[in-house]
């Protein structure tokens, strides 16, 4: 069973276990395993700009997920995720984690959109994001020549005929 464990100043030291995973494997898929402003994560969380959690599966920490806003006035956040435990990939855990995490925090973070960047060759991740409703906005080349996609998921609720009836 998948669960989330908030990252706090008391348990953030456990995160360093992923540094080795990053060197050995995760760096093939992503350039960062920390939120952009992780050095200031306590005030970022207090100010409603960040949610950052361990992914906890069957009693074990297997990875992490975060939603990070650049500024209060912006209704969008960047999603970051990784499953460090290779054996736990491609079983639908990523899809469940992303869907549940966005659902849990979209109101608190006041989001109408979630964005991410993914390397074009990372088919598994792209497939996972598509299952969660992300669509490709743009293809671009990073400074090092890597091809990447910018993907976005809109959280804006479509107006139903009932909503229209309420305002008219
Ligand atoms: C990206 C990641 C979080 C996705 O989580 P996940 O639990 O593996 O994803 P899911 O199982 O929900 O979805 C992956 C899908 O890709 C499919 N897939 C896996 N490898 C594939 C391949 N080579 N070609 C096509 N499809 C593939 C899986 O079968 C699954 O689809 P399905 O549910 O229709 O069978 C996880 O794989 C991971 O941490 N990877 C390493 C780090 C990484 O890539 N991070 C993201 C950087 S942007």
Structure description:
This protein is 26% helix and 31% strand. It is of the alpha+beta class. The chain has one domain (2-167): Aminopeptidase. A seven-stranded mixed sheet has the order 1-2-3-4-5-7-6. A hairpin with a 2-residue loop joins strand 2 (50-57) and strand 3. The longest helix is centred in the middle third of the chain and has 13 residues, at 93-105. It binds coenzyme A (COA). Residues 26, 29-30, 81-83, 89-95, 118, 122-125, 127-128, 131 line the site of coenzyme A. Coenzyme A binds next to strand 4, helix 3 and helix 4.
Count structural domains.
Answer: 1
**Helix content range of the residues, please?**
25-40%
Largest sheet: 7 strands, mixed
CATH level-1 class: Alpha Beta
Task: Give the H and E element order.
Answer: EHHEEEHEHEEH
Q: Which overall shape is indicated by the principal axes computed on the Cα atoms?
A: globular
How many separate helices?
5
Q: What number is the mean pLDDT?
A: 94
Descriptive key words:
single chain, 168 residues, alpha+beta, Aminopeptidase, seven-stranded mixed beta sheet, 5 helices, 26% helix, binds coenzyme A
């Amino acid at each position: 069973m998948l669960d989330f464990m908030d990252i706090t100043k008391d348990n953030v030291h456990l995160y360093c276990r992923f540094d080795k995973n990053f060197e050995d494997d995760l760096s093939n898929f992503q350039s960062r395993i920390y939120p952009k402003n992780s050095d200031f994560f306590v005030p970022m969380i207090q100010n409603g700009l960040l949610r950052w959690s361990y992914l906890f599966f069957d009693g074990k920490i297997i990875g992490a997920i975060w939603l990070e806003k650049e500024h209060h006035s912006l209704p969008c956040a960047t999603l970051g995720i990784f499953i460090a435990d290779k054996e736990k990939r491609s079983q639908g855990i990523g899809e469940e984690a992303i869907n549940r995490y966005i659902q849990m925090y979209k109101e608190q973070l006041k989001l109408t959109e979630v964005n991410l960047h993914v390397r074009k060759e990372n088919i598994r991740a792209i497939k996972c994001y598509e299952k969660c409703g992300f669509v490709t906005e743009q293809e671009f080349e990073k400074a090092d020549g890597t091809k990447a996609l910018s993907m976005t998921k809109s959280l804006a609720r479509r107006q139903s005929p009932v909503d229209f009836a309420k305002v008219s």
